[in-house]
Design goal:
The complex is a heterodimer of chains A (304) and B (215). Chain A has 304 residues and is α/β, with parallel strands linked by helices. Chain A has helices at residues 2-21, 63-70, 92-96, 114-121, 130-139, 153-166, 183-196, 211-217, 235-241, 249-252, 291-303, and strands at 24-34, 39-48, 52-56, 78-83, 86-87, 99-103, 171-175, 203-208, 220-225, 228-234, 242-247, 259-265, 268-274, 285-287. In chain A, strands 6-7-8-3-9-10 form a 6-stranded mixed β-sheet, sandwiched between helices. In chain A, strands 2-1-4-5 form a 4-stranded antiparallel β-sheet, with helices on one face. Chain A has a 4-stranded antiparallel β-sheet with strand order 12-13-11-14. Chain B has one domain (2-211). Chain B has helices spanning 2-12, 16-25, 36-57, 59-64, 70-102, 114-135, 143-166, 168-174, 182-211. The chains are: A alpha/beta (304), B mainly alpha (215). The interface between A and B is medium-sized, with 26 and 21 residues.
Chain lengths: 304, 215
């Protein structure tokens, strides 16, 4: 009996401790935005502190619109965003102190020196640390006397990160930071992302259409297609949620309508199905999909 | 606001536009000339250049992510433009004094007197009202806004010059340097008030339009 009580207390403590450590940092709830030829429909997902979330979708799927709507740079027609538990619109100025957002690479004031830009930016942040900034500039091999246009794309991303970290941003939102980077620079950046969240009080949300980026560093994945969130869950759960099925058409005929999409090959057909929709006694060959598979088969379904 | 103004003059507005008032102000030394043009070059050169470079620099997008209110971006831009307009007027005053000392005969159009600067302030005010609300409808299309502003300049200056030239009682009190300068001071005061009111209205409309713009 005594052992059971101790165990119960221990479990409660662990649950409490986990709650404390992984606080909900971003909560997107039912965002909608209408354009003439595109709609963002009821976009909802959340991100806890200490994690990296990859936001994937093909070009034009609504990644940038979603990220801009989160930051209120684009005004959503419906829905709300809370960050660190506070409504973003109502506490925008205060919350922006702890957020960094970067669209693509840092492409502002291309003919200005980094030193001049930094001197302006730092005035806006109460927690700005000059020591930390100097450390980061040295670590990233950035020359403050260089102009933005003289930096490579990877260096521009690093400069934006140096600014973000120097004002101690706890939520870093990056829109396609790896697009256009060479494989070495990309790998370097993804490693850096992992390092940044190690302390546990910072989270990164970054959009990409390069799925290998996610395999390397994302803890959570949110997949958007045609302005609708298809999935938002941990990477492992996402991969477990689907199966690639391979076989002759007559083998899958019974559950064909449950297959998200398929393609015909000389050996039969290969398709994507939700694991729960796969019949227990099915004789088709199955394998775990990659994130790219999931994106491609969903895109095929959209084109159908 | 101080930080935003520092941003305006360190990142957004090229220092050349602080020197331009001297260059265009010197045009007031041209004898027998429509001197309103010296003030108008602000709208012809500074405004389209500043706004086009800002588009290239992604200035508004950069500012929108700073921990400030969206309407503060508009306020900072208004303040920096007002500062530039006042610098233009101040240098125009310097060259106007030289003009008066230099040329003994008056100008065939309005002289560079107190009334002229009253009209100058009012002209900048109506320019602000024409340009800014149109620009902040989109926060990137500066071309049509500049054309509107320029037309306003030309209509305003043309209207004033025509009135002074054709209406004798007005010419008597507002042109040259008559012994009684009361009406010229009244015009100067009224011009400053019109500048303040129209610019304030322009800000209110621009800020509310900018709030609705998707960046």
């Amino acid at each position: 009996m005594h052992n059971l009580t101790v165990y119960t207390v221990y479990v409660i403590y662990i649950q409490y401790a986990q709650k404390e450590v992984s606080m909900n940092i971003l909560n997107v709830n039912g965002l909608c935005k209408e354009y003439e030829k595109f709609q963002l429909k009821d976009v909802s997902f959340s991100l806890d502190s200490g994690y990296i979330m990859g936001f994937i979708g093909s070009n034009g799927a609504g990644k940038t619109t979603t990220l801009k709507s989160i930051m209120n740079v684009v005004k959503p027609s419906k829905g709300d965003v809370s960050i660190f538990g506070k409504n973003f619109i109502e506490n925008e100025i205060e919350l922006k102190q702890d957020i960094a957002y970067m669209s693509g690479d840092f492409n502002h004031y291309s003919k200005k020196k980094l030193r001049v830009i930094t001197d302006v930016v730092k005035r806006f942040y109460r927690d700005w640390s000059d020591e930390l900034y100097s450390e980061l500039i040295n670590r990233f091999d950035l020359d403050e006397e260089k102009r933005v246009s003289e930096l490579s794309q990877g260096m521009k991303v690093k400069y934006a990160l140096a600014l973000a970290l120097s004002h101690k941003a706890k939520l870093i939102i990056l829109d396609e930071p790896t697009t256009g980077l060479d494989p070495v620079a990309r790998d370097d950046l993804l490693e850096l992302f992992q390092e940044l969240i190690e302390e546990g009080n910072r989270s990164i949300l970054f959009s990409t259409h390069i799925t290998t980026d996610l395999e390397k560093c994302a803890d959570y994945i949110t997949y958007i297609r045609g302005g609708v969130i298809i999935e938002s869950m941990s990477k492992d759960d996402l991969l477990a949620e689907y199966r690639i099925v391979k076989g002759a058409m007559d083998q899958i005929i019974d559950f064909k309508r449950k297959v998200i999409s398929y393609r015909e090959t000389s050996f039969g057909i290969t398709g994507l199905i939700k694991t729960k929709d796969l019949p227990v006694n099915s004789k088709v060959e199955t394998e775990t999909p990659t994130i790219e598979d999931i994106m491609i088969y969903y895109a095929k379904e959209e084109r159908k | 606001m101080k930080n935003l103004l520092i941003k305006e003059f360190k990142l957004s507005i090229n220092p050349f536009f602080l020197i331009l008032p001297i260059l265009v102000g010197a045009l007031i030394l041209i004898p027998q000339w429509p001197y309103f043009f010296a003030l108008m070059y602000f709208g012809f050169i500074t405004v389209p250049n500043v706004f086009s470079v800002n588009n290239t620099y992604g200035d508004i997008q950069f500012s929108a992510l700073l921990p400030i209110r969206k309407r503060d971006i508009v306020k900072a831009r208004f303040l920096s433009i007002i500062i530039l307009e006042i610098i233009h007027i101040l240098f125009a005053i310097v060259f106007a004094i030289i003009n008066v000392k230099l040329y003994k005969t008056g100008n065939f159009l309005l002289d560079t007197n107190y009334a002229f600067f009253g009209f100058g302030f009012a002209m900048y005010g109506v320019f602000n009202l024409a340009f800014f609300p149109r620009f902040y409808k989109t926060a990137h299309k500066y071309g049509l806004a500049t054309i509107l502003g320029s037309i306003t300049f030309l209509l305003f200056a043309g209207g004033v010059e025509t009135l002074i030239l054709t209406v004798d009682p007005l010419k008597k009190v507002l042109d040259g340097f008559p012994s009684d300068l009361t009406w010229q001071f009244v015009t100067l005061g009224a011009g400053i008030i019109i500048f303040m009111i129209t610019t304030h209205i322009a800000f209110k409309i621009s800020a509310s339009r900018f709030e609705r713009v998707d960046l």
